[in-house]
Amino acid sequence: MPSQLQKEIKRLKQELAEKEKLIKEQAQTFSHYKKIYGQSSIVAQIGIWECALPTEELTWSDYTYDLFELPRGTRLDRSHTLACYTEASRAELVKRRSDAIAARSGFTLEAEIITFGGKSRWIRITASIECQNDIPVRIFGMKQDITDQKLSFDHMMYLAEYDQMTGLANKSQFLLKLSSAIQGDQVASGHGYLLLIDLDGFKPINDEYGHIAGDECLKEISNRLKSINHSYKEIFRIGGDEFAIITTEIQDIKAVQKFAQRIIDCLSEPFIFEKQLLKLGASIGIARIVGDSVPDVFVNADTALYAAKAAGKATYRCYNPNMGSCAVRISV
């Protein structure tokens, strides 16, 4: 009997040793794959993160630490890491996270952070919820640095929406703004004004002094327009030497006429280019922002601009139906 018991103990010890060996091998394998996974994450520049619920205990991969410029292995406190997000991004993150936990779903978010090292970065966050018996127990996902992508996209959007030479919004933005102003007029029964501005004497300067002088003229004119009208987003360069201002703040015709004269006086002041005194002028056509479409308002303002040119330039005219129709110089 004792010998049988000893045999059983021996068998159990051998079985235990084999299991311990297996566990050790599995642990080594797990550690190996975890290391490869972590290195792959760094190479791919994708950070892995998870947060236990409801304890809010965070776990980050090495690259996530790098992303936030925090020494690897530093003890994590969610309140401290959350403080890295800008106010707008933090508010959106809190909302998306709360909604995802409530819905047992996930989300993707592009957020701006200020790293622990003081750098501004944009990151893309993906998150999923893990549940047990329909109770959320973990939220996890990836964080990726998209700063370069964001800057490239913003620059591309800037090129699409703004004139590179003057920094003013371009014609596409003008059409959107005018359409929005017309829709606002139809809803609110108010009105604003469209001012089309065409430079007088620009072509002779361009021909005599060259395109560099012409470019400097356009930059100077745009700066002067900015100094007159403080709402920069409502000033547009819509053609070679043609500008537009949309104002929904001025409701009185006398006030808009005074504004137009102020523009003419300002743009008529000479300026120096390479020791040469250059002089420009401006003619302005004014039309109320009222009608069924963008072309309606634009044609009215352009008709008034033709009338101002015909009156001897360096003046303005307000549209009225008695002006009749004319060929529109600028296509819409």
Automatic annotation (TrEMBL):
What region holds the GGDEF domain? 190-321
Q: Name one Pfam family in it.
A: GGDEF
> Domain of life here?
Bacteria
Q: Which InterPro entries match?
A: DGC-Regulatory_Protein, GGDEF_dom, Nucleotide_cyclase, PAS-like_dom_sf, Rev_trsase/Diguanyl_cyclase
What the entry lists under PROSITE patterns is as follows: GGDEF (PS50887)
Q: Which SUPFAM superfamilies match?
A: Nucleotide cyclase (SSF55073), PYP-like sensor domain (PAS domain) (SSF55785)
Keyword Protein biosynthesis belongs to the record? no
* Coiled-coil positions: 2-29
Q: Which UniProt keywords apply?
A: Coiled coil
Q: Does the keyword Coiled coil apply?
A: yes
The UniProt entry, under NCBIfam families, shows:
GGDEF
Q: What is this protein called?
A: Diguanylate cyclase (GGDEF)-like protein
Provenance organism: Pseudochrobactrum saccharolyticum
